[in-house]
Amino acid sequence: MDEVQFDEEGIKFKYLSNWKEQRKDMISPNCIKALVKVVEDNPSTITVYKNDASGTEAVAQLEEVFKESFERQGWSITESRILNLNGMPVYNIITTAEEGGRTLENNTSALINDGNIYVFELMHFKEFPYAYNDYLAIMDSIEFE
User: What is this structure's pTM?
Assistant: First the structure.
């Protein structure tokens, strides 16, 4: 499987070519990359957002905001913690919601670099976790310009 290099908006990362591009303008004006992959009629999406950090200097400052946002939307928080990714602090939150008798899982990771917050979001059905390894590979390949 070939890798595709994303190199825009002050960030670089790689993803596998079997992920297809979505129209990022249909998702959000802050979306810089939107990918979708369907296996056995089960879709997974990876979406990347870039926002102005607006004075936020540490990922720890994001924890309560993210938790409150997900809870307000009806998601259950499974995990919330700060990780170290190749020397960079990353805020990671995993949430779940029931959808049609299945568990929809959202893995969201936020990094701060050069006055910007980059948010990576994987949405997939927990019963089909194949996309999670691809998400981890993307996260591991992140570099800032």
Answer: 0.94
